[in-house]
């Protein structure tokens, strides 16, 4: 299981927080990541499949970016804060991510 914390990096113009998920160091090795390169993964939030970017800083911090793309023909852009709100998750909450058989990850509160 992968554990993380929802953080806020500022605000959108509608005053909703720009959220990212910081992954605990003890479980970050369970996600693909490389310093300076965005690695794409499929995440399931509230039953909807999204494409998310996994990033790593120079000091080894791993996080999921604030922008997601729906797994649909138009690759509809979605804010992480909105997807998380649908499952009752907000800034400061901890989440868990479980690997699925198809290689995707399900995010839960």
Q: How would you describe what is shown here?
A:
- The protein has one domain: At1g16640 B3 domain.
- 6% of the residues lie in helices and 50% in strands.
- The chain has one helix at 80-85, and strands at 2-11, 17-23, 39-45, 48-56, 62-70, 77-79, 94-99, 105-108.
- The protein has a seven-stranded mixed beta barrel.
- The two termini are 13 Å apart.
- The mean pLDDT is 95.
How many strands?
Answer: 8
- In order across it, which strands form the biggest sheet? 1-2-5-4-3-8-7
* Estimated share of beta-strand residues: over 45%
Instruction: State the end-to-end CA separation.
Output: 13 Å
- The overall number of domains is 1
The string of secondary-structure elements, in order, is: EEEEEEHEE
Helical coverage, percent range: under 10%
Largest sheet data: 7 strands, mixed, barrel
- Could you name the CATH topology? At1g16640 B3 domain
Helix and strand arrangement:
Layout: E1 2-11, E2 17-23, E3 39-45, E4 48-56, E5 62-70, E6 77-79, H1 80-85, E7 94-99, E8 105-108
Parallel strand pairs: 3-8
Antiparallel strand pairs: 1-2, 1-7, 2-5, 3-4, 4-5, 5-6, 7-8
Key traits:
109 residues; mainly beta; At1g16640 B3 domain; 7-stranded mixed barrel; 1 helix; 50% strand; globular
């Amino acid at each position: 299981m992968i554990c993380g914390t929802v953080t806020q990096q500022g605000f959108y113009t509608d005053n909703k927080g720009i959220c990212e998920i910081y992954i605990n160091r003890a479980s970050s090795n369970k996600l693909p990541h490389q310093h300076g390169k965005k690695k794409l993964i499929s995440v399931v939030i509230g039953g909807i499949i999204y494409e998310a970017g996994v990033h790593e800083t120079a000091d080894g911090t791993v996080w999921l970016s604030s922008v997601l793309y729906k797994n649909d023909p138009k690759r509809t852009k979605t804010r992480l804060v909105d997807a998380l709100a649908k499952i009752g998750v907000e800034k400061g909450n901890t989440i868990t991510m479980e690997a699925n058989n198809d290689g995707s990850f399900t995010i839960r509160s």
